[in-house]
Design brief:
The chain has about 70 residues and is of the alpha+beta class. About 30% of the residues lie in helices and about 40% in strands. The longest helix has 13 residues, at about 45-55.
Length: about 70
């Protein structure tokens, strides 16, 4: 099975500070209008779940997960 990198956008409620940005240093972080969007290429579903696990571990409210086709 081959892995194909795809770009994901993971949105959670709230605007991040430096500590949260550091937790997601491997992703682009965009903050606007009370939400934070993490964007980046992930190799597979396991990598996506790893990011979602970090969101949950930090007690952040997950709003949306979107993939670019």
């Amino acid at each position: 099975m081959t892995s194909t990198r795809r770009t994901f956008h993971i949105t959670f409620a709230g605007e991040t500070g430096p500590a949260i940005r550091e937790a997601f240093a491997d992703l682009d972080v965009h903050v606007a209008a009370g939400r934070t969007v993490l964007s980046g290429q992930l190799v597979d579903q396991a990598a996506l779940h790893s990011v979602i696990d970090r969101v949950q571990a930090l007690g952040l409210e997950l709003v949306e997960v979107r993939v670019e086709e």
